[in-house]
Structure formats: C-alpha cells, structure tokens
Amino acid sequence: MNNEKLQRLVKISQLHYYQHLSQSQIADELHLSRPTVANALKTALKEGIIQIKINDPLADAQTLSEQLADKFNLRKVILCQPGQTEDLLENLGQAGAQYLQSIISDQQVVGLSWGETMTAVAQHLEPAHRQNLQFVSLKGIVSNSAQTNFAGQIAAAFNQAYQLQTQLWPVPVIFQKAATLKAVMQDGFIARLSQISSQAEIVMYTVGTVRRQAMMFNLDYFNEQEIAELQSKAVGDVNAHFIKADGSLADEELDQRTAAVSLANLKRAPYSILIAGGQEKFLPIKAALTAGYPNVLITDTETAKALLENK
In the predicted model, what is the mean pLDDT of residues 213-228? Predict the structure, then answer.
C-alpha cells in the first residue's frame, strides 16, 4: 500500500472515529463518493489501522471475583462499584441485600451484625416470605453511650421485610469483667439466644477499624488507654473480636469479656458473609480473609484489586 493511500485511510478513519463525521459528511469534505469512504473504513479495519476494543466492566468484575475467590478460597465474591462513604455504603447495601435475600430459604437461622454497613443492607430489603425463618443478632446490642449502633433500625427493617421478630441479645457487647459475662450467659433466655446464633446457617457481618472514630471506640466500652493499646496491636474487629494482621485474636483477655458469636462459629457457618469495602477497611478485611473466617465476600472493585495486588 503506497503512502498516499495509507494517508487517506488514516484521514478517513480519524474523521469518522475522532470527529464523529458520518460517511456522507466525510465524502463531501474529501470530495469522494460515499461508497469509497465506506470501502476505505472496511480496508482500514482489515489492515489494523482501526482497532475496536470493547471494555466490559461486568466481565472485568467477573474476572476479579474469580481471582479473589481463588486466592482466598471463597465460595462467592460479589463486587460493587467503589465510591465515597455514602455512595459506597449504598452500593454495598444494595449488593448485600440482593445476595442475602437470594440465599435465604425456609427453616433457616440467619445471624445479623450491626453497624452502618448492615444498616445499608437493611434499607435495601424487599418484602419476602419464608416459613419458620429466624433472624438473630450475632452480638450484644446495648451500648453505654448516646451514639447508636443501629441494631434497632436493622432489626426493624428485617422484621418489616419478612413479617417476623428478630431476636436480639439485650446485653452489652463488651463487659467489664469476664465473670460477669459468664454469669449473664448462663441466663436461660440469653443462653438460648447464644446457642441459636452460634448455629446459624447464614451469618452476615462487617469489620471495624481501629481508627479513633471507629464505632466500637465511641460506644463507651473502652477508655483512652484501652483504645491506644488496641490500636497498637490490632488492625480492626470482626463481629467485635479484635484481630491482628494474620486474623488471630489481638487480646485474649478482652475476648473473654466480649458477648458475640465466636470467630470459630462464624467460620463454620455454611454461608459466612463478610460485607465491607473502602480503603480504611482494607487491613481488617485482609486479616479476616487471611484467617479464613468468611466464605463469601461482598466488597467494591477497588478493594478487590488491592486485595489481589497485596502479597
């Protein structure tokens, strides 16, 4: 192909794809016939002057999901679009509600955590009906401050969607003394709730950080010295259990004072669903995955990429 013909193919291609001119407009501008322009575009495509690439975000997300599931031995990975705090919560909530409602069936026990992410899930529930379904909390719901942990709102939303009554642990999640927690857990009602929660077929929970503004640090469970100590050795919490970077417990003594379904029982659930995203939660998400607590992950694509790239 001589240079003159090559230059004409490039010119026609640029006018069509860069300037978005129609074949007729190009023909008028270059004083050519429309069939000549059409043939030129076909030739340019055949010769590789024009290359068409289609970016399919759904396909990219599917690849990310499969790679992440393979890396952390997960049964399912669901990805949503990233965003700033409010947008990310909205995206996570929608994805979480859709997945959770797709797997809930009759005769099941479903364990629920609390927090802003779980609130977003609750806000996206659709009305549904199941036979002999039970919702239970995964940890104590009573806080020592005026700040809400959203447990009540979450329970109300699930109650409305499924026309049932969520069973909540009417105790603090952190006790001052392990002996006090042990005594409380021997109460018939609390003991029964704990047993039901620990045997849930589906559990959905999130992770917290060790930033000073983290919810767990603003419910008046800890003093400043205790917060500083946790920040020095933990990367975050999973269902109120503070963990190190490898997913192991950061404070054994504290965990004996924690009223929450154990990490071992979260791990053994057929559907152990971790829903969390965003850069600030990367470390606790990675720690939870490293320890193998969840078998289902719902997160955003940016967090997913970071988890794959991080060794």
Answer: 93
Whether residues 146 and 252 fall in one domain: yes
Whether residues 121 and 257 share a domain: the answer is yes
Position 46 scores a pLDDT of 87
Give the number of other Cβ atoms within 10 Å of residue 165's Cβ: 11
Domain boundaries, position 18? 3-46
Q: Which of 272, 300, 310 is nearest to 61 (CA)?
A: 300
On whether both 79 and 187 belong to a single domain, the answer is yes
CA separation for the pair 295, 69 (Å, rounded): 9
Residue 92: CB atoms within 10 Å? 29
User: What SS3 class is residue 92?
Assistant: helix
Cβ neighbours, 10 Å, residue 196: 14
Q: Is the dihedral of CA 226, 228, 230, 236 positive or negative?
A: positive
What is the amino acid identity at position 236? G
Give the span between the Cα atoms of 283 and 306, in whole angstroms. 10
252 and 208, same structural domain?
yes
| Distances, alpha carbon 280 to alpha carbons 117, 208, 214, 224, 268, in Å | 14, 9, 10, 21, 27
H helix count then E strand count, the chain: 14, 10
Residue type, position 183, single letter: A
> How many C-alpha atoms does 167 have within 13 Å on its Cβ side?
17
The residue written with tokens 């049964």 in the block is: 75
Q: For residue range 131-162, what is the model confidence (pLDDT) as tens digits? A: 999 999 999 998 767 778 889 999 999 999 99
Q: Tens digits of per-residue pLDDT, 6-53?
A: 888 888 998 998 888 999 999 998 999 999 999 988 998 888 888 877
Looking at the structure, do residues 176 and 38 belong to the same domain, yes or no? no
Count of structural domains within the chain: 2
User: What per-residue confidence (pLDDT) applies to 56?
Assistant: 55
At residue 252, does pLDDT exceed 90? Answer: yes
Judge if 36 and 65 occupy the same domain. Answer: no
